[in-house]
What does this fold into?
Amino acid sequence: MNAFLLTVGDEILLGQTLDTNSAWLGRELNLLGIRVIRRLTVGDDHNEILASLEEGFRTAGLVIMTGGLGPTKDDITKKAIAAFYGTELVFSEETWQRIQRIFTRLGRTVTEGHRQQCWMPANARLLPNRMGTAPGMWFDDRGRILLSLPGVPYEMQAIMEDAALPELRQLPGVTPIIHQTLLTAGLGESEIAQRLEAFEDALPAHIRLAYLPSPGLVRLRLSAYDGQQDIRKAEVDQQAEAIRALLGHAVFGEGEDTLEAAVGRLLSGQGRTVATAESCTGGYIAHRITGVAGASQWYLGSIIPYHNYLKTSQLGVPAETLFAHGAVSEPVVLDMLHGVLQRLGADVGIAASGVAGPGGGTETKPVGLVWIAVGDMHHPRAIRLQLGKDRQKNIEMTAIHALQHLRLWLLEHRPETSG
Amino acid sequence: MNAFLLTVGDEILLGQTLDTNSAWLGRELNLLGIRVIRRLTVGDDHNEILASLEEGFRTAGLVIMTGGLGPTKDDITKKAIAAFYGTELVFSEETWQRIQRIFTRLGRTVTEGHRQQCWMPANARLLPNRMGTAPGMWFDDRGRILLSLPGVPYEMQAIMEDAALPELRQLPGVTPIIHQTLLTAGLGESEIAQRLEAFEDALPAHIRLAYLPSPGLVRLRLSAYDGQQDIRKAEVDQQAEAIRALLGHAVFGEGEDTLEAAVGRLLSGQGRTVATAESCTGGYIAHRITGVAGASQWYLGSIIPYHNYLKTSQLGVPAETLFAHGAVSEPVVLDMLHGVLQRLGADVGIAASGVAGPGGGTETKPVGLVWIAVGDMHHPRAIRLQLGKDRQKNIEMTAIHALQHLRLWLLEHRPETSG
It folds into this structure.
């Protein structure tokens, strides 16, 4: 079964509101094996909505429309739907009673706009909205289904979860897809493609592999379409194992996992604590780490010696070392690591110093040059990176490289106790 | 002039990736007075892309296509475009040289996938991509323009800013709307609406005021539609001044300015330096500050005593104070401020300690309770916040409040020298 998602709203076309509803619906429908083939956004305009509904049903058996409902826009959307079905609007006494009950309870006064909301296309079946005043509407025209939902995300989601998804699950031809997403760091999209070339050629037709790259990371999504649920599940797990074998430590997690959470699991598993010393990343690594709930179990803290003299006063980097090699150098980043381990009393650490840009580059130390150090007192490891010219991206890429290199270090230097 | 935005990518339809590109393009085109009339998303499929291009040009003179470029998907998109124009792909030696140069600089190996990227539709004019390997493509078929851009947001934006937007601005029928955006902090949307009520009533019809709220901030956008450019410019500037007068210190900047940059301008103007001590925000304030280019002129660094004992060892907060009042308290946050000023030698500072959540709340210290301190040794100021239950949002709101309170403190405590 195919679905067509229709989003209505000038504010979306203007870019003032981000359309998160379509993404949420895409994920939910995909889990049901309903394939979203197109997403269309149009403005709050009768003819545009009408034309979009016709277009939607030319290509799909299910059209889900979000937005265009609520006190201010209601009539445009509903009149367009009524016109599409060649019916008219009728007053829903039931909805009117509900809205009045809600407002009495909230001690607010009902407006004319709310009374307008109670006019519905005659062929609409109303879906309860426990989060707001505008109910969802379900239309079934000889098996071609239209769902009209309010644009407010939590209202839309509530109506889907309470009423629409359970009904959609029962429709003929709806068979949930199996998939698994592997998260990788340290390899580029094309490097991975090369390593997986033979694997992809051997992949059966009903299992697909998708690359979802983002800066420093590539997500690999395996999806199985046909066949029995349990068999496909086993197949996908098996293919995922094959990918893990081919990519090794580049795979750090699954699904919604993060690199910092993966590092955290390793640290707690090994009973180790970590501290950070950040110059060019200016706290971004600490920010990502402390975004992991429960990080206080294994993260001690950070020293950010943004100014060079703090590298000496706060981390004990000898002024001579700074003078001789410059702040962005292997000796300095190794001294920073040593200093933060000693002063904060952590088992392992991350230190970073680089030229984030846009300014500050020189002939020998160009913008994008970054030195990272990871490890413990006895086995520190320094890594040199040459990144690009964009400050924000350099900061993000440095954090990702640092977390990935610490992860690799932890995998290679397990404490005796944890074998 | 009308525009049709076409997003290509299975990952968008599946909801695995949020389409932020269309929103960004919607805003930028709106600034040029180009109206986005439709947004369509289709999968990585030859026929779908081909059909969408035809559909796009039926309704608009400008089609901007994002996604579907990059080592793994390249050929589908480009073959579809070539088919649309009835031309074939030619090899771009120039692009091939560029990719090889980039990779040599990065010390990485070029793959077959990258060589594939160099095949372009014969009628494409290439737009430089300073952020990645895939160039943008500009097609002009008797005034009907197609732009094909990579889906990675920062690459797409770089190509638009460097090459595409300046050219679009020159097109016949493109008359940029005059706008000015004022950025405010510390006032809620309804508070602002109240203060501006009379102002808005008096606003001439051809000038509109839009409220664009985001967590902790409200952007106020003035737009002038008709009349001569220079006259409208003068009118908008005048109205902006009127708003500044009505909102006072709540207005911290214009356009793409940030609160941290505004704080930075004040500090450099006053010849002062700042340091931060962050517990609950775990480096996020430092991250925002160091996101400002040239921050090293006025930002010294930070100590992040995530673990309580570091509040004592690194910031000199007496253990008794921590014991008596708890880490999230006025005395502790004032001691943290004092400690960071003393140890890092900054003129002014920010200290923050709170219960970010989701766990860690108690009867007396619920999730969302945050104490902030700003100022110098002589005039420290402590502020208590009661935020919500969401960890990430609490961290962001704490940073915004801290920066805004430091800004107000700096405005009220100008050093004698700067009058």
Q: What stands out?
A: The longest helix of chain B spans residues 391-412.
